[in-house]
Amino acid sequence: MSDLVERLRALPTAAISDALDRIGIEGALHGLSPLATGFRAVGPAFTVRYASVDDTVGGTIGDFLDDVPPGAVVVIDNDGRTDVTVWGGIMTEVAAHRGIAGTVINGVCRDVSALLTQNYPLFSRGRFMRTGKDRVRLVAVGEPVTVSGVEIRPSTLICADADGVLAVPAAEAERVTETAERIERVEADIVAAARTGSSLRAAREKFGYHKLQTRCQA
Fold first, then answer.
1. What is each CA distance from 112 to 13, 81, 103, 190, in whole angstroms?
2. What Pfam families does the annotation carry (predicted)?
């Protein structure tokens, strides 16, 4: 798994997305973006799910961060809410110190200045200062969550960069990685040909660019 993580870390999410399309896997988490364009995170998901408080159950913050292993990407599903945060400065400081690879939130965060100071990779639907205390409750840790229609399990590999966030199923990770690497090589060959005198049209035709993302037959 560590080898796959390193190989995926070397690839842009654009190539991984094209590979997912070619294989026929839906893995793009629409609407999530980095707090800074230089942020990048790759690693197995550590899943967390929150829900709104109700009349019978009060709010809970959850100290799940103590259980996150180094190199994991925390994936928090707060049902896409943008009116309350589930991640702030304390969590950023602790996560960065412990070597956690990054955080993906189906919702919003706050204390952005701490994120930027620590250069801690965080991807979310935005930022907002209002606390989730007494407004949300922790309902699950280490269970599958669904973000943007994509199921994410604890074994799922998360890949995130300036273009957004992807989820790669563990069972297909080798295949996706090999396909993405091949796509990157073809695109590099096209650029090299164009730089040495070929027309872009001819280079794309020569290297089969228009079929790169076409879904392959099983």
1. 24, 17, 13, 39
2. RraA-like
